[in-house]
Amino acid sequence: MRLIESDSDRLLAALRILLAEKNIATVPEVAERIRLTDAASPAQGARMVARAWTDPEYRARLLADGTRAAEEMGIPMRGAPPLGVLEDTADTHHLVVCTLCSCYPRAVLGYPPFWFKSAAYRAKAVRDPRGTLAEWGTVLPAGMRVRVVDSTADYRWMVLPRRPDGTETWSAERLAALVGAEEMVGVRLPQLR
Length: 193
Prior knowledge:
Blueprint lengths: L6 H15 L5 H13 L2 H13 L1 H9 L1 H7 L10 E5 L4 E6 L8 H4 L4 H4 L1 H9 L1 H7 L9 E6 L5 E5 L11 H5 L4 H5 L8
Parallel strand pairs: 1-4, 2-3
C-alpha cells in the first residue's frame, strides 16, 4: 500500500533540509529537539521545586536565573525563552497567565494544558484572579496579595510554591509528588497526599 504524502509533510521535510543546508540545525539535531520537547513534563519542574525546598543554595540560583537552574538539573533550555521563577511567600501568591496565547515554559512543564490556552482562563485570570483560584478550590487569606504575571514569547514564568507544613523530613522525591503543573502555574497550592 502506498501512503500519500501531505503538503505539510513535504513542507516539513523541505524545512529540515533548508536548516541543514544553512548550517542552522542538522536533521538529527531537529529530531533530538523534538524528542526532548516530547519528553518534557511537569515532573521536571516538580524536581526543581523539590530541590529548591530542600537546598537553599539551589533555591537562590533558581530565583536568580531559572534557565541556568533548569540546565543544572539536566533540563535542556537551548532555544527556549528565558525562564523566570516567582516565589510565593506568606503574603504574596503568584498566578501565571499568557494573555495573548499560550506562552508556557514547555521545557520544564511539558505541553500547556488545554485550560491554560483557553480564552476563558486567560481573561478571568486577569480580570478576577481570586475567582479563578476559587474555581480550582484555592482560597487564599483575605490579606494575601495575588500577583498575576503574564508569560510572554520573550519570557516564560513558573511559580515556586510555598512548601507545605509537615514536610520537613520528606525526601525530594516525595516532595516532588506534591507538585504538578497547576501548582507551578499558581492555580493550586501543594497539598499533603
